[in-house]
Amino acid sequence: MLERAAVMLLAILVAMAAPSAPAQTFEAPGAGTGVYQGTVAVSINTAGTVTGFYLVAGTVYHGFVRAANGTITDFDVTGAGTGKNQGTYPASINTKGTIAGMYTDASTGYHGFVRPASGSPIATFDVPAAMPNFHAGTVPMSINTSGAITGFYRDKNFVYHGFLRAANGTLTYPIDAPGASTAMYQGTECYSINASGVIAGLYTDSSGVHHGFVRAANGTITPINPTGAGTGAKQGSVALSINTAGAVTGFYSDSSSVGHGYVRSASGTITSFEAPGASADAWPSLLTLAAKGAPFPTQGTGGLGINTAGDITGAYFDASGLTHGFVRSSKGVITDFSIPGASAGALIGGTGSIGINTAGKVTGAYLDSSSIAHGFILTPTTTTLTSSLNPSNAGQSVMFTAKVTSSAGDPTNGETVTFMDGTTVLGTGTLSAGEATLTTSTLPVGTDEITAVYANDSSLLGSTSKALKQVVKK
After folding, report:
1. I need a labelling partner for 369 at 20 to 30 A (CA). Which of 97, 117, 230, 379 fits?
2. Is there a contact between 428 and 419 (Cβ–Cβ < 8 Å)?
3. Residues contacting 404, CB < 8 A, separation 6+
């Protein structure tokens, strides 16, 4: 059960910046600097406040909250153990700054907690039917604006069930999807809840196949089975995040156990997507994280978080097994990214994007070459493109100017923008005060579609301009 929670929170995870755009990679005070220690951000709210956990020697977990101004406060729930794989695991933060998560006691029992924005008092709770030991118990996964919490627990027969905790503390359990198996290590798991009380999650049937689902506020459960989802054990679909409008994102594993992202609209329409560069080559090393039947593919694309606008963030694996983050806009445009310094590490590595807020800021973690985790926040950018002469004649010099803007200020001077004519690279320009230029006299006759591409850095998300139709006459 710990593997399920850890993999979920790590979300298949596994610089230098100018004064106008301070680096948004960060470390929690006290975070360890050993292999697979460090800082992991898991959730970001509308105000830009982030929560997550950090690991120290001995694989002990501690919670933290990072304010929008960069101030980081760590915390531990009273009763949290200090042994291996014990401690405090924040999972979700709502718009009010209230955090929900779990803590593991010294007997390896899991318990839920709620931490208010003020920091205290931290309330703890348990689903009465949960078995509170043997790496089992109560696991909150998501908290909505009103303070309602959803998650899952494992009973004395090692079967999973979902639960709903109202803001006043009233518990509704068990939540069991029709068709969910009652065998050991199978059942129903709730992962996300929106402002209307609609829940997204997964259930496992008696054949070990996973099915995503949506549970309406009235309790009606509808399965999510995208076309192409595999029907073998540990294949199928998973619903991980739901937004205010009721749109759901997640992924499904096909018959080859390759992951594919999807978004399901509130009306039930399912659209699948692949991140550019995603590979279908197996990455056996990730199996160490996906142990004990965790329903996560070891290759491909996975949607992990969706915001109010319908923008999705997630992660994908390239051909070398390195993880990259991505953002898919509500219009279907996918921008991939890797944090500078992200590396393959000792066993697993790369960039894992987990949470996205209303403003489009994304958060997550990356592993460096020493397999140390670091948190990050990326602010979205907009790139616009203009031409000095349009139409132009063949052989005439045309200067293209790209302007990159963001709510966090200009990109670092000296970073580059790549200018493209369709899929052909025309060249690069160096940014200064947010602008980069490229002059060329070799454009082919006709209508050329020129774009400017800004890649991400450690604080800003990359972006691509709209295509500019450059007319070149004979």
Report:
1. 379
2. yes
3. 381, 382, 383, 410, 411, 417, 431, 434, 435, 436, 454, 460, 463
What are the tokens at 33?
Answer: 């600097």
DSSP 70-128: S-EEEE--TT---STTEEEEEEEE-TT--EEEEEE-TTSEEEEEEE-TT--PPEEE--T
Q: How far apart, in Å, do the first and last CA atoms of the chain sit?
A: 68
Q: What are phi and psi of 3, to 5 degrees?
A: -60, -40
State the amino acid at position 395 in one-letter form: G
152-196 pLDDT, tens per residue? 999 999 999 999 999 999 999 999 999 999 999 999 999 999 999
Cα atoms in the 13 Å half-sphere on the side-chain side of 17: 19
Q: Which residues are registered as beta bridge partners of 253?
A: 236, 259
SS3 288: helix
Joined together, the tokens standing for residue 114 give 């709620």
DSSP state of 35: T
Rounded Cα distance, 404 and 64, in Å? 32
Topology, domain 382-473: Immunoglobulin-like (2.60.40)
Model confidence pLDDT, tens digit, residues 85-113? 999 999 999 999 999 999 999 999 999 99
Hey, what's the torsion of the CAs at 432, 433, 436, 437, to 10 degrees? -90
Residues of the chain with CATH 2.60.40.10: 382-473
**E strand residue ranges, 390-445:** 392-393, 398-406, 416-421, 424-430, 435-440
CATH 2.130.10.10: which residues of the chain?
Answer: 2-378
Closest by CA position to 448, among listed 382, 384, 398:
398
- 2-378: what CATH class? mainly beta
DSSP labels for 233-258? Answer: TT-EEEEEEE-TT--EEEEEE-TT--
What are the angstrom distances between the C-alpha of 245 and each of 147, 306, 443? 18, 10, 45
3-state helix, strand, coil in the chain (%, to 5): 5, 45, 50
Using alpha carbons, list the distances in angstroms from residue 332 to 274, 335, 453, 457: 10, 10, 17, 22
What is the DSSP secondary structure assignment for residue 444, as one 8-state letter?
Answer: P
Q: Are the CB atoms for 222 and 212 separated by under 8 Å?
A: no
Cis peptide bond prior to 411, omega within 30° of 0: no
Q: Considering the chain, what percentage of its residues have pLDDT values greater than 70?
A: 91
pLDDT of residue 252: 94
β-pair type (109-115, 136-143): parallel
| R_g of the chain computed on alpha carbons | 23
Residues facing residue 236 across a β-bridge: 210, 253
Q: What is the residue whose two structure tokens read 């359990």?
A: 173
